[in-house]
Amino acid sequence: DDKEGTVYATFDYANVLPLSKFVLNSQGNLVQTYWDDSKEDWKVVGLAPKDECDVYGTCGAFGSCDSQRTPICSCIRGFEPKIIEEWNRGNWTSGCIRRAPLQCQRVNNSGEEGKTDGFLKLKMIKVPDFMERSYGSIDGCRKQCLKNSDCVAYAHDVGIGCMSWSRNLIDLRKLSIRGSDIYIRLAYSEFAKERHLKVIIRISMIIGAIAILSTAYYFWRWTPKIRGNNMSIDISYRD
C-alpha cells in the first residue's frame, strides 16, 4: 500500500496454469480471467460477488437472503423490519428486530420471568461469521445456549462441534446445497400459534378416529340383523 492508496497482492499457483488476472470492475465485482490461446482473448472463469446475496450484510441483522425469491430479503420468523419504510423501498440494510423479547430481557425489564425460550430451526443456511466454538452434542449445544443469556442462536456440525452466536446475526443466506441447520432463539410466545395448531390437529384426529370407530361399530352391530330380517322375509315369501 503506497502513498497513492494502491493495493496489490501476489500469489503462486500450485500447478502451471495459463496466464490469469484479477480485475476489479466499475461495479465493484472481482473478475478472474485467463488468456485463451485458441481464441486469443481473455475468458472469464470467476466472478465475485455472483449475486446480491453474496454482498455482506445485504439483508441486515436477522434478515435472510435468498437469491431465488423476490424480494431477496426477508425477516426470519419472530422478527420484523426495523425501518419499514426503507424495507419496502428495497433498502434492507437496517435489518430486522424482535417482535417479542427473550426471557432474560423480560426479567430485566419487568421482573417477569415467564416461560423458557424456544428455538426455530432454519435449514440449509450459510451461517454467520463471529461464531463461538465449543465441543458437545447437538442437544448439549442447545442447553449451552439456553444457559447463556447472550446466546441468540446455535448450530452443530460433526466436524466442528457447537457453534453459537451472541450478537446480531448478519449475512444469513438460504442455500440450495451444502447449507447448515441453524437454531434461532425466540420467545416462548412466538410458538403459540404452532402449539395451538398442533392441538387442533390432535383433536381433529381424535374426533375422526371416534367417528370411524362408531361407524364401524354400527355396521358390525346392525348388518347381521338386517341380513336376518331379509332372510325371514324371503322365506315367508316362498312359503
UniProtKB/TrEMBL annotation:
Keywords: Disulfide bond, Membrane, Signal, Transmembrane, Transmembrane helix. The keyword Nucleus does not apply. The chain crosses the membrane at residues 199-220. The keyword Mitochondrion does not apply. GO terms for biological process: recognition of pollen. GO terms for molecular function: kinase activity. InterPro entries: Pan_app, S_locus_glycoprot_dom. Residues 104-187 form the Apple domain. It holds the Pfam family PAN_2. This is G-type lectin s-receptor-like serine/threonine-protein kinase. It comes from Quercus suber (Cork oak).
